[in-house]
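Q: Convert this sequence to structure tokens.
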Amino acid sequence: MDKSVKNRIFIGGTFAAGMLSGALLSSIPMSQITGRLIGKSKRVLLKERRGFNVRVEKVKRELANPLPDLYKATESLSLSEEELFRG
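A:
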């Protein structure tokens, strides 16, 4: 295993152990702790789902008209007759 992978596993395990020991040693009942965690995870999931839906709708809009509007893309370009026949 790569050293960075081992470090990540160690850090993740240490964090989880700290969270677990903090939950076990706290004076707050475990049901209240789990309720808070569940509520927070639901909020995070809803936020991510909304963001995902926005990205899906954007992709659908982009795929609905896959060909670019060349007139809009070139309307700001100006070309005089001298420049046209110079080349």
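The chain has four helices and no strands.
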